Amino acid sequence: MRRSIATVSLSGTLRQKLEAIAAARFDGIELFEPDFISFTGSARELRQQAADLGLGIDLYQPFRDFEGMPDDLFRRSLDRAERKFDVMQELGCPLMLVCSNTSPASLGDAERAAAQLHELAERASRRNLRIGYEALAWGKWVNLYRQAWNIVEKADHPHLGLILDSFHTLSLRDDPMGIADIPGERIFFVQMADAPLLAMDVIQWARHHRNFPGQGQLDVVTFFEQALLAGYTGNLSLEIFNDVFRETPNRRTALDAMRSLLFLESECKNRLAARAQEGTDEARAPAATRALQRLDLATPPAAQPLGGFSFIEFGVDEATGQALASTFQALGFAHTGRHRSKAVDLFCQGDIQFVINTQPGSEARQRFEELGPSVCAMGLVAPDPVQAANRAVALLSARHTSPLGPNELQLPAIISPGGAVVHFVRAGSTLDADFVAPVPRAPAPQAGGLTHVDHMALALAHDQLDTWTLFAQSILGLGAGESLELADPFGLVRSCALTNAQRNLRLVLNVSKSQRTRTAQQVRATGRSGGGVHHIALATQDIFATVQTLQAQGVKWLPISPNYYEDLLARLDLDEALVRRMQTLNIVADVSPGGGRFLHAYTEPFADRFFFEVVQREGGYDGYGAVNAAVRMAAQENAHQRASAGQ
Amino acid sequence: MRRSIATVSLSGTLRQKLEAIAAARFDGIELFEPDFISFTGSARELRQQAADLGLGIDLYQPFRDFEGMPDDLFRRSLDRAERKFDVMQELGCPLMLVCSNTSPASLGDAERAAAQLHELAERASRRNLRIGYEALAWGKWVNLYRQAWNIVEKADHPHLGLILDSFHTLSLRDDPMGIADIPGERIFFVQMADAPLLAMDVIQWARHHRNFPGQGQLDVVTFFEQALLAGYTGNLSLEIFNDVFRETPNRRTALDAMRSLLFLESECKNRLAARAQEGTDEARAPAATRALQRLDLATPPAAQPLGGFSFIEFGVDEATGQALASTFQALGFAHTGRHRSKAVDLFCQGDIQFVINTQPGSEARQRFEELGPSVCAMGLVAPDPVQAANRAVALLSARHTSPLGPNELQLPAIISPGGAVVHFVRAGSTLDADFVAPVPRAPAPQAGGLTHVDHMALALAHDQLDTWTLFAQSILGLGAGESLELADPFGLVRSCALTNAQRNLRLVLNVSKSQRTRTAQQVRATGRSGGGVHHIALATQDIFATVQTLQAQGVKWLPISPNYYEDLLARLDLDEALVRRMQTLNIVADVSPGGGRFLHAYTEPFADRFFFEVVQREGGYDGYGAVNAAVRMAAQENAHQRASAGQ
């Protein structure tokens, strides 16, 4: 399909936007009129710049408040349109978007609207231009695609067609299932936008919070599939009004945009293929087959059902590595291996593998120099690691290759947003082959009963959240879970959880809405690239034993206010003896309506950057104890202030 | 009145909040429960800390989902309440806020709710505690104060009363005029919050966007006056959920909070006095008189109707001063004076006085070292300058005094947020007395026909907007006008206009919502204090002559895209010859529905920090040409990129 994007979706001057869009290999743009009005050159110069970059100017948008006007205003609008047609011809742009009228002066007479659009289309046809009519979600008389299509049918002019926008339909909870019944050749353009579900006025929602397919919660796949079943073969385009995208570096936005389209196409292709083959939907099967035959939809290797974390690797210098090794040992990890050829050490407990990489000159070490102590790489379990990496690359992740020593393991790997390496590892395989037994440095610690990584949380700059969400959904195959705002003493932190269907791979993305929280300070410390680890939660089946054992080995648990436990007793139906035991061990709790329970405890931060959490899930609890985050963040702030005061 | 504030309204740990609240001389706090739950000490320790700071713990809040429950849940909630009563007794806190139930399990039976609240009040009475019941705007059954009062009346217990919150009433557009009919002694507490009018779900609005009286658009004065007419004599308290306040330095927030209460009290006092004296409201006159006799409402000197800008003073070093002098001369200003004893120069045109202060060691010069080139002081015309300054000081502005030379003018002055000095100047007076004729340095420029300062725009850090809005409204007596979001190539900029009734003093506050706009960069360059000048708009009655004359003297006007003028012709009913003349001179235009017109042109920036604008208002145009801001900001970005590229 021909892929395009509206210029409003990216930051920068128009020239910079075009360069970013071309670099992401789009075919064309929707020219957002204000971008053109601010452009320093003429229409012809813009056409040339776009052409030099291999981009068509596929749509001129928006033309507002046109149809259904009283006659005098209609005449004036025709003059306005003719001036815009002049511009479009200079631009070499064949199609104009007319969005449904929002003017208080407009009249709700569909016949009038149709007649006026007919006249506009007739004028356009004289210049070989076309008009697409779109139902705006807040149009005064027309806000559903059915209404717009009704008027287009009435107007009955070959140069007039329908424009669809997923946001305008799905934001109103309108049913997209009628789209497939519209003749595909009368749909002149399709704009796709996703969005998080927000309880706000639709105009504010539309102007500030749309995002790319795969970043939000609208059913964009069903919407676009309907257009394909209708026989639509035109542009697959993105039109995103988003406050954060306006300031996000535009090369990244453009790459995310293209990734979102490839992901959307592949999801639609799977749906169409199912429809065409299984015969479950006889009425639509021929249309699905035709669409598949006609369209070159993106076909990345199929998504793999990923398993959990195989290993997590920390890139640090020698001094930090020593401190981290001590922390791991206090946490009950055994130092099980030294890399055969590099300054890399392996620590194990249960199914958890932690790697400390201090190899001078390595990428891990470079990452440390740049970001400070953080996670430089992780291994994720995949049934077919090569396919998993190939899918990621097909969806525009950079492939990662590192120099290998003799007989070292070669793991298919890619780069995640923010730069950490994601390796794909076959289930059950370990890193042992690359490691030899280390020289014992200290008495082996007592294991703490930690079994596996429950989740990893990242601290992201605010413009990284949508990038990471799309990466996690399209490439890691995770689904979005709870998204909450947590109160730090110095502002709110948004926390978005993603997990796979099997619930053995969980990621939490934390973004500070304030510049002054510890999370924000941590992100700033890593530079704008973000993606630094915020905390790593490790699972146990007996948190009381674990906390006690590890405490004896020197782990410092974050002290929780006694008032928390009084509130817990007032709030939840918990046994008082249990709560008092929790209190002595600084364990906090959450419960879920279905009877699930979550017990967890936080360590004090490592190097003021990240911490570990020990968690025990019971009874199908599926959250992350967010209810306790405010208490945690206040305790961390208090601990920090005490440390700063030298107490 | 006893003044208090909820701890949720400020940033920081609870200990830091208490210190900030005490420093602003509040009498007490509303203890927001999550702050207590995170507090590291016990209830007794908190009570002691508050007492040591001279603060009472006046309200414990909130207690949720209590009334109207099925019996079993009611019993559990009573147990929960008893545990909270324990805490309150330790805290020495006499009053608990119960907000109306939002639980799906609650029943909409007012009799049941009343009986359960009666039982709660009875239990509270045994410990000499009291219960205040408040209608939450999103309560499941009760969301209006009338409903809450109805239940309180039904419950009929002396330890149960009503709590009022201006936000919960005014956000629902409910009429507060019935409050005066409630017996004042049955109102146990009044929480005040203002808010901007936003089109969003009331819960989101309430949790993220409340602000202090005088910062928003709700009629908080009428609301509070109603409570006073009812005979209420309890706390005047603030409960503000605001994302920005959560990260604003809490000493400033606390000072703004107290200022907002003093302002609110004085506005209410004026209303009550008018009601009591004029006999326009016979029914309420006795209540108004009683309230005035009983209450010690704040009485700052009366607000002065300020006039326009008398002078604007720039603090710079010698080199920047030279450049600025050249800019002023190109703009048609005559160098009319040299200060008698200091390195300070005066430039005049029409009624405009610009001052360049390069005096080594002066505050102006220190401000330059800190912020770079900016406005260090301004003079505002006031009928009674001493009273104007006294009012500001009564409303917590710091008074400014500077060392005076012999026979120098002494102007009453205060410090504005961000640190610039505001002098108050009698109408018609000039600075001439302090200045002597300068040595002519260059041929006198030709005057450009500039008559007065139309408006001054400031670039503020995002946490300065509410602070400045309150300062402008309470101390400068300005009213809030349009508030718009403007699209810079790298993000949105919110622009809020304030003006006096006579329309001769206009301020525009610009806040970047993005970190990457030029406005944001400018704010960062000045450090967090903000308050740097963004641009100064100067009025003319013939913008064509002005622009041409000044251009001949070397003023560089920001080049506007030719596409802008094509769009102007399409969009507005303007004479083509006029538009082409505008195009040659880079003049842009806006029109208002009533036939008003605004022609304006922007200079290129001075030292990459601020620019001048020349404006011509016609036909009662009352805006600021915001429709052209996107074109301006794109042009500034293009100019900056060209300059950076060395072209």
From TrEMBL, chains A, B:
Enzyme class: lyase
PROSITE patterns: VOC
Domain VOC: 452-584
Name this protein carries in UniProt: 3-dehydroshikimate dehydratase
Family statement drawn from the similarity comment of this UniProt entry: Belongs to the bacterial two-domain DSD family.
InterPro entries named among the record's database cross-references: DSD (IPR043700), Glyas_Bleomycin-R_OHBP_Dase (IPR029068), Glyas_Fos-R_dOase_dom (IPR004360), IolE/XylAMocC-like (IPR050312), VOC_core (IPR037523), Xyl_isomerase-like_sf (IPR036237), Xyl_isomerase-like_TIM-brl (IPR013022)
Record's keyword terms, sorted: Dioxygenase, Lyase, Metal-binding, Oxidoreductase, Pyruvate
Catalytic activity: 3-dehydroshikimate = 3,4-dihydroxybenzoate + H2O
Pfam families assigned: AP_endonuc_2, Glyoxalase, Glyoxalase_5
Keyword check for Metal-binding: yes
Task of the protein: Catalyzes the conversion of 3-dehydroshikimate to protocatechuate (3,4-dihydroxybenzoate), a common intermediate of quinate and shikimate degradation pathways.
Coiled-coil annotated spans: none
Keyword Cell membrane belongs to the record: no
Molecular functions (GO terms): 3-dehydroshikimate dehydratase activity; dioxygenase activity; metal ion binding
Enzyme Commission number(s) of this protein: 4.2.1.118
Cofactor: a divalent metal cation
Annotated binding of Mg(2+), by residue: H455, H535, E613
